[in-house]
Structures are given as structure tokens and as C-alpha cells.
Amino acid sequence: MPLGIFPLGDAELVVHRGLDETRSDHQLFDAIKKEILYRLTMLGNSPEDTLLGVRHGALNTPRILANPTLESLKPRFEGKPFVCVAAGPSLDKNVEQLVGMEDRCVIVACDTVLLPLLRRGIRPHVVTSIERPFLNYEVYVPQVLKEFPQEAREILLVCQSVSHPLMAGRWPGPCIVVGKAESPTDRWLVGKILGGTIMISGMSVAHMAFSFASLMRASAIAFIGLDLAFSKEGDTHAKGILPQALMNDEKTRDRICVPGSLGDEVETNVIWLSFLQMFERLLSALGTRIAVSDCTEGGAYIEGMKIEPFDDYIRRECSCLSNEPIFLMENDSLEGFFPAVDRIQEIRDRIGQELDALNRVETLLEKIEETVSRAAAPALTAKRRQELGGAVADLLDECHRSNPVVSFVGQSYTHMAGASLAELRFLETVEQVDQWVQLHREMVEAHRVGVAFLRQWLEYLRPVLESSEEGAWPEATEIQPRFSAFLGQEVTDLRSPEACFLSRYLCAHDLEEGCWPPQLRWEAARFLACQGRSFEARRIMKRAYESLEGLPAPRESIAAFFLDWARMLGSHDLCELPLYAEALEVLESVGEFSDSPDQRVELERLRRHLLEEQRDFLKRFRKVTPFQDRTLRLLLHRNRAEEALTKRNLPEALRWVRSMLDEGLESYPGTCVPMAHWLLRTALNCRFAADPVIAKASREALDDLWSRRGLLAQKGFSWPPEMQAYLEEQGLQVFTQTADTQPVDLQEGEVVPGD
Question: For 284-332, what is each residue's pLDDT tens digit?
């Protein structure tokens, strides 16, 4: 089966006791498995994660092409002592010793510690960044640029091609965008196609910092804050490093005891343990060429590092004052270069070759579909079906050999279906054949999505090569018409020079920040959505809404804005899930403002689509998260209620909301109380409906709510004055007492003081 090395990550060694005379087989197996797990880790977290890295690499291409080389930096750093600053909880013990050391050593900061260092008056020479999520840009960069814009101009950013393009795009100082040498995808895109810089980068910014110091031929390297373990108080990072939500997430991981650097035992987790093992791998490769000291003064023990106090390292290695400031320069003094004409042509040729390879993959996928259909034909013998099944596996293998991204994405999906494929491989029954056919058609579709994605971003590179000189960016008043004109075309060509220009503009300007015109934000969000970047689009739309709120606008334009926003909220974007509930809430605003028949048709179509997508997603999600089963059932009940409303079946909607209250009012009041308020308002308004079915369902809902009054009161539910009228219609005597500004508190047969 075409599973590649993926199944070997789960492999176990089984040796018959009678043959188990030595441990050499075990050691060999452990060594092979360790290497396989390392290579799998370097591939990426998921197919979506890998594709996100490809997209970011394409968007970072202008920076990659204009990179100075790492080799060109060596004269500035070679032979100097380095201090690499990580974010562990022990950092608070000795970070102050770096104050005033900028001309005695090269300070390399992980992106997580840059802002805290600057606030302490410590200006690093270099900052490293490796992660691809947008959060890494959002948490660290805007605040640094707001508080320390001049200092940032004097700091070299070394970031990965997979990092969000705003990371490098907005950085005001010198910048080098590199590929990860361990990643087949980066070697393919950054190294092979673009001819850019790749470097050993490991799995974290601390690994990058170490690798950079090694490449610069430091005289010595010291780490502080490299705990890779929880502190005795249970802290994961130094104070003020991470948002509380992220620290809480780290604390929930399972803990493992490992030897500490001070001779004690410390607690770590699986992620940090893998970081530790990566350091040991890097140190082993470095050998004795550069002495590396762990001056963390706590944390986990890392074999290959010398344990010593930071004071001792400073006295021994950093006693000499440099004759001139180390790397104190602005971006202009480290000019990049745009590739020469002959190099541009070479890149064009390589892009053409890779596009041809994708064409071959598509041809192979067509052959796979054809062969699968032949294997499913009636009246074939089991042997003949098995032969055709083997041919399908060979074709899949050929697909995976064609391109490293197709290989990872394709093998990931194939591996996920591996157990089922193994069970079905004999193709002896009709049921086995049907399941086998369905699995392969799903795999072919997954491969086609990956190929289409790669094609989009490879073709995007072509106009990038025309010119990478940014020059002076247009003002907002000039750029907005360009977005409008591009989106106004009947056919939006995402591979055109204009699309490339607009993309580059959005890689250098964060439209969520600052005072951009709302219309520009709206147009830019629509452009991002066209590129498949829905997560970024909805972020900008939220900001546009905040700046538009309260301003006069035509009703049809308001409805169009909400329709666009709902589409973006309900769209997939690789590692970001759709926000179905928010999309449906936004859609409610369309009906309030739209007088256009076309908009109302689109509203109903989009609502039905979102409800179907949400229901399918929740059903799939329930299979993998049974511990959240009740929460998911509540969402499914709400989904059913909203679907009933789209079909204008109010009685069914009321029943599903009552089911929500049955399921979750006690444990999930935050979800259920707002629905109880909706149920009450709707039932009160419809209890005299001309349709007897609606009227009956409304009265039943009101009676149901009244029967829950004790629990509803505990959960903060308030009754409107109209409820008293309904109860009196039912012959109940109700007393109220409340201030004019308070909600009505109703009780049967007694006077209740207001709260």
C-alpha cells in the first residue's frame, strides 16, 4: 500500500523469546524508529499545516529573493561570543545581567522574549521566528512596532519562509527569510525553485537561535531561559511572555520527569522533551567546534551543554568591549539584492518544470480513477480485482514521488485510511469493493485539492519575478480603487501582476491596525477571501465593522457587507475552522437591511449552505471528541432549530429549542439562556397565530418555560411584562414587584421583592 514511511512511526518490534539472545536488534530498531519520527516531525503537523507553509512561502517570495546571504553576515558576527535568550521561567533570574552588554556579545532573542527584553532596556542584535500561525505575528510584532519602532530598525529579523508574511513584511529593520533545511517542502520551494537560503532550524525559535550562532562561527554560545521544563511553581514561561490562555494550554499537557541541569529532577512535557532531544542532535552534529554553555540556572539537563552560572560565562567570554557597535544599523545599511536577469529566467524555468510535474500528477490521478472504476466492474474475479488494486497502489506511489508536498499531503490521507485499506485489500465481497472504491475516490479528491492549491501559488510566483522592488507604497486613497477595480472584473485572475501587487501590499500593511478607511478594509478582505485566506479576511472585516458602526450607509450596501462577512466566517482556511455560529448570526442582519430580492435569495441560499456544513462538521467532530458530546448535541439541536426556521417550520424550531433546554440548561446556561429568551419572545408573539398548529406549539412552549421557572431563575433568566398577561389568560394569579429599571420577577401566588 502507498503509505510511505508513515506507518513506521507507529511500528513496534516483536521478537520471539527463543530468538531474543541479544539487544542489538532492539537498539537498531530504536535508532531507525527515532530517525523516522524525526523525519515525520520535520514534514509538518498536518497536510493543512504544510499547505499553509507553502502559501506563506509564496507570499514571502519578494523577501526571499531580496535576501542578503547568511555568508555576507559572517564578517559582522564571526568570532564574537553569543547569548541566546529563550523564554523559560528561569529567565527572570539572570536576564538583568544582559543590560549594557550589547557591545560585548551578540544577543539573539527568540520572538517570544523580544518585547520583554526591550522593555528592560536590552536591545538584541537578532530575533528569530519560526512558527506559521498568524498568532505569532499578532502577539509579538504590532506591540514591538508600537513601543520600539526605532529599536526594531536596528534588529536583524531571521524568520522562516513559513512565518506569516506580515512578520517580515512589516519589519522595519534588516530581515532574512530562510527555509528550514530539514523540511522537504522548504528545500523544494525556497531552495530548489527560488534558490533562497535554507538553514538547519530545528523545531523552535531557540533551535533557530542556536543554529544562527553556529553558522556565524561564534567564539562561544550561551543560553539563558532555556528551561524546557516547568518551574517548581508550575510556570511555563517567564513573566509577561505569553498570554494567559496560551500558558494555560501548556499547563494542561501531560508531564514527564527528566533529569534537571542542577542535579535534581524536573517536570517537562512531550513537546519540550522533543525540543530537548533536538538540541542534543544539533549539539552532536556541532561537535567541539564551539563551546556551548547552559546558563539557564534551572530547567532540564541537555547533554552536550556545559552547565555554568551566567556570571562565569560573561566574565570569561564577554570581558572585551567591542571597538565599534555590533550590528548597529538600519535596514538601508544591509541592502538586499534582486536576482539578476539570468537567475530570474532559471527560476521561471524551474517553476515551469514543477507545473509540468503537477500536470503529470493530474494525469496519474485520472488513471487511478479509471483503474478504480475497472476494479469495481461486475463479474471480475477476486484475483483480477486484487491485481487492479495493486496497480492503483503503484500509481499512488508514482504520484507521491513527483513532488514532496504532494507526497506528504497524499501520504497523510492515505495513511489515515490505511487500516481500512488493509482490511479491504482482498476485494472479495461487494461491501469490500464499495468501501474500497469510496476510499480511493476520497483520496483522489484530496490529492486534487492539494495539486490545485500548489498550482495556484506556483503560478502566483511568476508575476512576483517581474519586479520585487517595493519602492514607495501608494496612499490608502490610491490603493482602494485598485482593489475595487480588481474585484470588479468579471474574471478575477489571482495570477495577474495586479493580484501579485495587491498581495504584496497586504503583506506589508496590517489593515487591522491603524486608521484605514472602512471601505478599503472591506475591499481588501474580499480580495483575501478570493485567495482562500478567509481567516485573515474575517479579521479585517471585523475591524471594518467596528469602524463602520453608527455611520450612515445605503441599506443595500449594509446588507452586502453582512453577506460578504458571513461568507468569510463560514469558509474553511487550512488550519482555521469555519465559524458557523458567528456566520449565521451575521446573516440575521442581512434580513434587517435588505430590500433586494436578489440579496434575499442569496441570504436563504447561504443560510441553508451554512446550516448543512455546520451539521456535517458537528457530526464528524462528535466521532473524535466524545468527551464534548453534550456540547455538540446542543449545537446540533440549535442547528436543527435554525434549519427549521429556514423552512418556515416554526413549530419544529420551537421543539428543537425546547430540546436544547432539556439537554443543557443545567450545565450550559451561557448557551441555553439566550435561546430560552428567544423561545419566550417568539412564543408570546405567536400564541394568537391564525395557524392553529403554530398557536398550539407557542402555548406549549410558554407552559414549558413556566414549568422551568425555578431553574431559569437560578440561571439569571428574566421575564418580560407580557408574560404576566399570558399567565392571567391561563387563570393564574401572579404578583410582581420591581423597580422600573429592573426585569420583572414573576412568582405564582406571592409577592416577590425586586432584586
Answer: 999 888 999 999 989 999 999 999 999 999 999 998 877 667 776 555 5
Q: Which residues contact 260 (CB under 8 A, 6 or more apart)?
A: 229, 266, 298, 299, 300, 301
Cβ pair 544, 525 in contact under 8 A? yes
CA distance 592 to 94: 59
Which residues have a Cβ under 8 Å from the Cβ of 311 and sit 6 or more positions away?
94, 97
> By three-state DSSP, how is residue 290 classified?
coil
Checking if the pLDDT of 22 tops 60, the result is no
Buried-exposed string 430-452: b where 16+ CB fall within 10 A, e elsewhere: eebbebbbebbeebbebbeebbe
Rounded Cα gap, residues 466 and 458, in angstroms = 14
Q: Residue 737: which region, alpha, beta or left (left: phi > 0; alpha: psi -120 to 50)?
A: beta
| Nearest C-alpha neighbor of 292 from the set 207, 362, 353 | 207
CA distance 517 to 513: 11
DSSP per-residue letters across 491-514 = S--TTSHHHHHHHHHHHH--TTSS
239-281, pLDDT tens digit by residue? 877 665 555 555 556 789 999 999 889 999 988 998 999 999 9
Residue with cell 439566550: 674
pLDDT digits (tens, 9 = 90+) for 490-512: 656 888 889 999 999 999 999 99
Compute the distance between CA of residue 432 and CA of residue 442 in angstroms, rounded to an integer. 15
Position 242 scores a pLDDT of: 64
Question: Which residue, among 746, 740, 737, 697, has the nearest Cα to 717 in the 3D structure?
Answer: 746
Q: CA nearest 602: which of 610, 214, 477, 551?
A: 610
Separation of alpha carbons 46 and 40, rounded Å: 10
Assigned C-alpha cell, 476: 490608502
Tell me what pLDDT residue 646 has. 81
How far is Cα 137 from Cα 160, in angstroms, rounded to an integer?
12
Q: Is the pTM of this model over 0.85?
A: no
d(CA 638, CA 633): 9
pLDDT score of 136 = 87
Instruction: In whole angstroms, give the CA distance from residue 51 to residue 408.
Output: 10
Higher pLDDT, 746 or 318: 318
252-266 as b/e: b if 16+ CB within 10 A: eeeeeebebbeeeeb
**Mean pLDDT, rounded, for 602-631:** 78
Instruction: Classify burial at 591, counting beta carbons within 10 Å of its beta carbon; exposed 0-12, middle 13-18, buried 19 or more.
Output: middle
Task: Please give the average per-residue pLDDT across 658-687, as a whole number.
Answer: 89
Assign residue 745 a region (left: φ > 0; alpha: ψ between -120 and 50; beta: otherwise): beta
Place of cell 478575477: 492
Question: Distance of alpha carbon 730 from its chain centroid, rounded?
Answer: 55
Question: Tens digit of pLDDT for each residue in 157-189?
Answer: 999 999 999 999 999 999 999 999 988 899 999
Sequence-distant (≥ 6) Cβ neighbours of residue 430 within 8 angstroms: none
| Mean of all residue pLDDT scores within the chain | 84
State yes or no: pLDDT of 454 exceeds 60: yes
DSSP 254: -
C-beta of residue 338 within 8 angstroms of C-beta of residue 468? yes
Nine-digit cell string for 234: 508550575
Helices H / strands E in the chain, number of each: 32, 13
Degrees, nearest 5: CA angle 336-340-344:
105
Task: Assign 189 to helix, strand or coil.
Answer: helix
Whether residue 675 contacts residue 656, with contact meaning beta carbons closer than 8 Å, is answered with no
Cell readout for 349 is 524555468
Task: Kindly report the three-state secondary structure assignment for every residue of 210-228.
Answer: HHHHHHCCCCEEEEECCCC
Q: Quick check: helix, strand or coil at residue 134? A: helix
